[in-house]
# Entry
Amino acid sequence: MLELFTVRMEPMSASVLRRLVEQVTPERRRRYERFRIEADAVRSLFAELVVRRIVRERYSISNEAIQFRANSYGKPELVYPAELHFNVSHSGNWVVCAISDGPVGIDIEQIQPIDMEVSRRFFSPAEHAQLIALPMEEQLNRFYELWTLKESFVKAVGMGLSMPLDSFSFTYDQVDAGGILLQAPSPYEHYSGEILAFDAAYKLAVCFSKVKEQQFHTIHSWSTTDWA
# Structure
């Protein structure tokens, strides 16, 4: 089971935001208050609110019953209900969430111009070689596909950027057009990554363990106004 949820950021009143802030953990509340840019604060707030809404509706439990913790690398996890895995990402106008019964990672990035030398610093030699071999007009698109795949992978395995981004590779199969191959160290070789069609101004990738067969369900689409 692997389900994806998207939340589009829309303007919200101060009174609604004050009410929503009371529904998250004290740590999330403090993070919300530290942001200087309101859009960043609201995206951070909804990174928790979307998980809470999914859990409440799926398990018919109260908001107060939901418990979180962070693993040793800082990745948020559910303590209760413990059987559900989740991961959240946000960028620009979107907050996205993946839930699964196994490890999962998700990443969304707004496509913006970037110096391709970044790929030489952070990507594996195989990834960088495939990237720069593309025509110039295709390189930006491929860069963000690789970046979101790699971010979703380190989030899925629970290590975040403690795992060097050049220690594993996502390469594109030249025979099976569109096929994406992952080469990762043990015990992570059974993971898989996919690029999902979404907003054309963004790249969205999800990574998950193939130990259990995963099936994508319909992407659930919300807006922040659904919390008003």
User: Anything to note?
Assistant: The chain is about 30% helix and 30% strand.
